[in-house]
Specification:
alpha+beta, about 25% strand, single chain, 14 helices, Pnp Oxidase, Chain A, UbiD C-terminal domain-like, 3 domains, Arc Repressor Mutant, subunit A
Length: about 525
């Protein structure tokens, strides 16, 4: 399938997942409108700006699935295949993003429709750009980093936490040289998801985008920097991280944890050129939910991989939105003895994962009530809760003590084994199943009752307690039955007659209950 930003927008249109707004909308109102919408929004009339703006693209499982080209529960497998068979990018001469080029003193970032999100944000922030840098030793690195607009050609870049882009910048700073970068805005979800990967140093995340596409991602050479950009992007900014270090205040930010982040000290970026399509759409990744949902498939892919390597058979995985699609995993497994604890240890090894709950495959990991029920009925805390101290952490966890500058914080991790214990009989976990619960529908019983026709003279065919008693005794002679089984065996006999007959057989001492509660002949 074609895989540009515009192809994805068209896919959303075809699947009724895009709402186009033609009335004038002030940029200060964008975030609130996106938050209210069940669909992605395309704003075509932004007073003072020549570009349109789109947001909310990845704010639901369905829209992510449309972007990945597979059902949501198949995304992790597709990501796994892309990681196993990465495809290098290819360079192209003709790039649609270079239709308009603005350089030098004409560069004005405030000509871009960059909205503000929270009332406490430090300023307008570019949130959905794929930042590409290149190191002479480690090659290309791609990631998504926020850039707060500060001056006409100056932004910040939020690389305060340890990552490969920060290492590239530190290595350039050590040589007192700027680090050239490109920022591609308006790219296909393949690139957004790939750039979100926390790949090992020296691994080019854009090869994962190629794996997702089944062909190399199209890159174009830079115009003012020696770094490529994504050829089919809507907008590309070219610039360099200045060799000043982490000395400029920046923030606050709307963070993925649904809280306001604090002030950070970060480097600055000098923008040297702006390139864009003639009819470019600016993409504003809405914080926090677009950021959150984009992370879930990545962690799910990692979870499936580590469970496979641990020899645990996985049934389903939910990287939960309540855990910001970042810190919590609920996994159901097809358990053999010991697998619950092994699964906990495997999943807690994933970077940033803080809490893990393991359940049996009869539990719906996407139903929080079902998961909590498993915890309530299958867990003994002193046996089933595993706690690991001093593990590497994500600094944005507000439950941690205030970080010491320059030090990576540590956290406690917890796993809950909510599988049925090996020493407990499975019979203790038989669920309630209502009689005929999958055979009848409430909708069939709504509305006014139809006038009943007069009953026909069928008295001779009707069962009596006496005639039904013999039939029930004959049935119990073949196999023990629950009361509901008798209702199934005699569907044309009215309920009251069946109940009265069973009551009479008890009174007469002809039937009793076995150890499981089934009816049996008293003479057995």
């Amino acid at each position: 399938m074609k895989a540009s930003f515009r192809d994805y927008i068209q896919t959303l249109r075809k699947n009724d997942e895009l709402l186009e707004i033609t009335k004038p909308v002030d940029l200060r109102d964008i975030a609130a409108l996106v938050a209210q919408s069940e669909k992605a929004l395309l704003f075509k009339n932004l007073p003072g700006y020549s570009m349109s703006l789109v947001s909310g693209l990845l704010q639901s499982r369905n829209r992510i699935a449309l972007g990945m080209g597979v059902a949501y529960d198949e995304i992790a497998d597709k990501l796994g295949r892309a990681m196993d068979k990465p495809i290098p990018p290819k360079r192209v001469a003709n790039a649609p993003v270079k239709e308009v080029k603005i350089t030098g003193k004409k560069v004005n970032l405030f000509d871009l429709p960059v909205p503000v999100f929270s009332i406490m944000d430090g300023g307008p922030m570019i949130t959905g750009g794929v930042v590409i840098a290149e190191d002479p030793e480690f090659g290309i690195n791609a990631g998504i980093y926020r850039l707060m607009l500060k001056e006409r050609n100056i932004t910040g870049i939020d690389i305060v936490t340890p990552n490969n882009m920060r290492r590239f910048a530190e290595r350039a700073l050590a040589k007192k040289k700027p680090l050239p970068i490109s920022i591609s805005i308006g790219t296909h979800p393949y690139e957004l998801v790939a750039a979100t990967f926390k790949a090992n140093l020296g691994v080019n995340e854009l090869t994962f985008a190629g794996g997702l596409r089944n062909e190399g991602l199209r890159l174009a050479d830079g115009e003012t920097v020696p770094v490529p950009c994504i050829a089919d992007a809507e907008i590309v900014l070219e610039g360099e991280i200045l060799p000043e270090g982490w000395v400029h205040s920046e923030g606050p930010f709307s963070e993925f944890n649904r809280l306001m982040g604090g002030m950070h000290m970060n480097p600055r970026v000098r923008i040297k050129s702006i390139m864009h399509r003639k009819d470019a759409m600016y993409y504003a990744l809405q914080m926090p939910w677009e950021n959150i949902w984009m992370s879930a498939p990545i962690y799910e892919a990692a979870a499936r991989r580590v469970l496979f390597e641990a020899g645990v058979q996985t049934a389903a995985i939910n990287v939960t939105p309540g855990g910001c699609c970042h810190w919590h995993i609920v996994a159901s497994i097809k358990k053999v003895p010991g697998d619950g604890k092994n699964a906990i240890m495997a999943l807690l090894s994933i970077a940033d994962i803080k809490h893990v709950t393991i359940v049996d495959d009869d539990i719906d990991v996407f139903d929080p009530v079902d998961v909590e029920w498993a915890v309530a009925t299958r867990v003994q805390a002193d046996r089933d809760v595993v706690i690991v101290s001093n593990a590497r952490s994500k600094p944005l966890d507000p439950s941690l003590p205030l970080p010491i500058h320059g030090k990576v914080p540590t956290t406690a991790k917890m796993g809950i084994d909510a599988t049925i214990p090996e020493n407990i009989p499975a019979e203790r976990y038989k669920r309630i199943i209502y009689f005929n619960q999958d055979k009848i529908k409430l909708s069939d019983y709504l509305g006014a009752a139809e006038a009943s026709a007069k009953p026909k003279a069928e008295a001779k065919l009707a069962e009596t307690v006496e005639t039904l008693s013999e039939k029930i005794l004959a049935a119990l002679g073949k196999s023990h039955c629950f009361f509901a089984d008798l209702l199934d065996k005699f569907p044309k006999v009215d309920y009251k007659t069946v109940a009265n007959t069973v009551g009479r057989l008890f009174e007469d001492g002809k039937i009793k209950q076995d150890k499981d509660g089934k009816l049996e002949l008293a003479t057995e």
